[in-house]
């Protein structure tokens, strides 16, 4: 009888072990937290063994079976990556000017680029990180070959590759007072998250004020954790420091799509890179 272990499940297992957190593992592998939990549950079901120790919903270490599996899982994930690189190493050459949203840097994106460059030495990368409207403008003006960006669902140029569920977020002590203008921590005006937040508040007739603006995901997150105000981030960004504070008090937020678009002059290298990114981040 033939037995097979799913490589995505093993990758999720390794990520959870190395981060000791489902939310951080989800960011690393580019999945939702529930998606990572589902992959782990499926892997445990196939093996018929518990792999993780859990306490109050948190990872608390490895079982004996988990410790046995871990070195095999790491080798299998590494072999999978090595095989992929070996089969595609000489497939593309050229220069690619790539644009990505700021929050890609919170995922496994930098390491993903490093692995791509190691495997495809004939491709020269020029990467820009900015808010989505700026990236779209650069693409239209010929400054980029390929761009990933955020947009309102089913609108605008490009092809949708993923959908993000947005959440109102704050720190552990956050408690929205709807009788006062809601302090907001947001990306600049050209950001789809910002538009979703302000549209929802305006439609609900709630007052608001901008307390902090930053073009970087790190800056927005730091301000939220410091308690400067509430923000809007994808559900996958939730963890012990940045928490869902929406409940029934704040209005629901519309979903945002991640889309990719190419310049008319984009060559095979740009399309190959976009596929590598989409696959690597689980888009």
Automatic annotation (TrEMBL):
PROSITE patterns, per database record: HTH_LYSR (PS50931)
Protein family per UniProt: Belongs to the LysR transcriptional regulatory family.
Example GO molecular function: DNA-binding transcription factor activity
Pfam families on file: HTH_1, LysR_substrate
Species in which this protein is naturally found: Paramagnetospirillum kuznetsovii
Keywords: DNA-binding, Transcription, Transcription regulation
Gene3D superfamilies with a match to the protein in the record: Periplasmic binding protein-like II, Winged helix-like DNA-binding domain superfamily/Winged helix DNA-binding domain
Native organism taxonomy: Bacteria, Pseudomonadati, Pseudomonadota, Alphaproteobacteria, Rhodospirillales
Protein known as: LysR family transcriptional regulator
Domain HTH lysR-type, residue spans: 5-62
